[in-house]
């Protein structure tokens, strides 16, 4: 899974050994960040919502509160 993520443009993922979860980091291009700001959203939240709407894939934005 890690190799698949790391083969994607603007995605970095640390190797996961013996786990069911991967935690890729996506680097959003400046144009995407500006589009999110114009929509009044945090960029990663905006991306996650658009991905969910377009594909049904659910992601957790990294900017969310930590507990």
From TrEMBL:
<comment type="subunit">
    <text>Homodimer.</text>
</comment>
<dbReference type="GO" id="GO:0008483">
    <property type="term" value="F:transaminase activity"/>
</dbReference>
<keyword id="KW-0808">Transferase</keyword>
<protein>
    <submittedName>
        <fullName>Uncharacterized protein</fullName>
    </submittedName>
</protein>
<dbReference type="InterPro" id="IPR045088">
    <property type="entry name" value="ALAT1/2-like"/>
</dbReference>
<dbReference type="InterPro" id="IPR015424">
    <property type="entry name" value="PyrdxlP-dep_Trfase"/>
</dbReference>
<keyword id="KW-0032">Aminotransferase</keyword>
<keyword id="KW-0663">Pyridoxal phosphate</keyword>
<dbReference type="InterPro" id="IPR015422">
    <property type="entry name" value="PyrdxlP-dep_Trfase_small"/>
</dbReference>
């Amino acid at each position: 899974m890690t190799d698949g993520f790391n083969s994607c443009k603007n995605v970095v993922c640390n190797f996961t050994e013996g786990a069911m979860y991967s935690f890729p980091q996506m680097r959003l291009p400046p144009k995407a960040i500006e589009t999110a700001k114009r929509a009044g959203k945090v960029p990663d939240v905006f991306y996650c919502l658009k991905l969910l709407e377009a594909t049904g894939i659910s992601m957790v934005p990294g900017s969310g509160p930590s507990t």
